Amino acid sequence: MKIIESSREAYRYLWSPVRNEDRFSRFLAGRNIAVGHLDPGEMGQRLLDLKAVASAQSQLAGKPGSLELVELSERADYLLNAHLASTLAPVTGRRRAKYINPGVGLVCGATQYHVDMPWSGCIFGAWCLQGPERIVRFSEMDLEVPFVPGTVVLFDPAQPHALLRPGATAYAVEEYQDGQMCTFLSFSIKKEPRICEAMGVLVYGSRKHAGVRTTVRQYRPCPMTGELQYQE
């Protein structure tokens, strides 16, 4: 996998899974993303052939911007771990890693900017199985990566991100009325020292990171532009 680092220092911000809770570690959102390629092949086709996936596709048809997640079994977790291991090894540093909650995600057209808060202690991953050419854009890092069948991308779920057409920086629903569906495998990897180092994730310390822009309050990105919006 290739590690891509943002040149924007200002994007780093304080993030904690629980507001005002000192018992939990607080992190500066990772400043790196990792991109690789793994041909979907037979494994990808098996995921696409699941009845639940076909059902979700029919439900999303004609609903641009809608997203559905089909959760997979522990057995699938085991098989996918083995299948992705070699691709992810440059980041995980091992032949196997702790994967959590794998699922098949389906998006009709594109997604608005968002953060994936439930995966607070993890690095988020997506493996594109099929669909039109898209990009994953990270607004705070000012980075984007192509997202086509075979693409594997890892990033900190605290970073605002969106799935958009190539060349777009903002989300506009009227641009995704053709009904094209993007299908991907989503998964998360538990944050461990080696993974945090590769992804540029730092545990927050007030002395070490004095002066770094932080989000002491709760925040969410603007769905259209990705700009951070703070809430009391």
What does this structure look like?
The protein is of the alpha+beta class and 232 residues long. The chain has a single domain (2-231), classed as Jelly Rolls (Sandwich). The chain has 4 helices and 15 strands. The protein has helices at residues 41-48, 51-60, 74-92, 193-199, and strands at residues 2-5, 14-15, 27-28, 32-37, 67-71, 99-108, 122-130, 134-138, 143-147, 151-155, 161-164, 181-190, 202-203, 218-221, 228-231. The strands form 4 sheets. A 7-stranded antiparallel beta sheet has the order 1-4-10-7-12-6-5.
Short structural summary:
This protein has helices at residues 41-48, 51-60, 74-92, 193-199, and strands spanning 2-5, 14-15, 27-28, 32-37, 67-71, 99-108, 122-130, 134-138, 143-147, 151-155, 161-164, 181-190, 202-203, 218-221, 228-231.
